[in-house]
Amino acid sequence: MEQNNDGGLTQVRHVVLVLSGKGGVGKSTITTELALAFRHAGKRVGILDVDLCGPSIPRMLSVGRPDVHQCDSGWVPVYTDAQKSLALMSIGFLLEDPDEAVVWRGPKKTAMIAQFVSDVAWGELDVLLVDTPPGTSDEHLAVLENLKKHRVDGAVLVTTPQAVSTGDVRREITFCKKTGVRILGIIENMSGFACPHCSECSNIFSKGGGEELAKLTGSVFLGSVPLDPLLSSSIEQGKDFLQSFPDSATFSAINSISQTLLESLQT
């Protein structure tokens, strides 16, 4: 057993939830890219993947299925780099079979989330991003209940431009207000298609739904991220998109959003 006394969230400066009322809007992609952007900005970052039924971040960060070790103060997170500047804990690490379905009732999910929040030895982090499943279910309430001992800075809400998505995210905003979670801002993902050949952005879906939702609810609009094949392939291959394509419009969008978020957290 490893020796480590930096248990729980005692040395975590900021905690940010990544939420959406709708599945398939790219929460995990946004979480991953924000974490990488924060790391490139010189921050020590952690990701807590509590999407118990669809833990995809280990693949997005190309960490495979390593053994999770324990120290005196709990589970040791998996680090994605030698400098230990990006730490990750996911249910995906604890499944014997990567194709295994997590068929758990609410109490078991709640107990696992409680353990994730309290028993991971994160050590010193500038930002911990919590990637949540869609909706406003047991998992979200369990996360908030177990984070009560530690200040949650707020939530970033992810939507796509279409009304069917923004309607569900509106309900997530209501959830945040009812539970007292500050809304740090809204991100519109898949906002247009960025052509990898000419860089022109075409609106395959609608556009501006996230910005309109922010105006209607009095929330901060953090920015739009296009549907970019280069980003999609980077995520699929577990590569660092921001490092590979620093001249792309998508890089500029993600970098701008991350900088705005960091400034918001520091105030």
UniProtKB/TrEMBL annotation:
Gene Ontology, cellular component aspect: axoneme; centriole; cytosol; nucleus
GO biological process, one term: iron-sulfur cluster assembly
Record CDD domains: Mrp_NBP35
Superkingdom per UniProt: Eukaryota
Essential cofactor(s): [4Fe-4S] cluster
Keyword Hydrolase: no
Keyword set, alphabetical order: 4Fe-4S, ATP-binding, Cytoplasm, Iron, Iron-sulfur, Metal-binding, Nucleotide-binding
Cofactor note: Binds 4 [4Fe-4S] clusters per heterotetramer. Contains two stable clusters in the N-termini of NUBP1 and two labile, bridging clusters between subunits of the NUBP1-NUBP2 heterotetramer.
Quaternary structure and interacting proteins, as annotated: Heterotetramer of 2 NUBP1 and 2 NUBP2 chains. Interacts with KIFC1. Interacts with NUBP1.
Family: Belongs to the Mrp/NBP35 ATP-binding proteins family. NUBP2/CFD1 subfamily.
Function: Component of the cytosolic iron-sulfur (Fe/S) protein assembly (CIA) machinery. Required for maturation of extramitochondrial Fe-S proteins. The NUBP1-NUBP2 heterotetramer forms a Fe-S scaffold complex, mediating the de novo assembly of an Fe-S cluster and its transfer to target apoproteins. Negatively regulates cilium formation and structure.
Name under which the protein is recorded: NUBP iron-sulfur cluster assembly factor 2, cytosolic
Species per Swiss-Prot/TrEMBL record: Seriola lalandi dorsalis
Gene: NUBP2
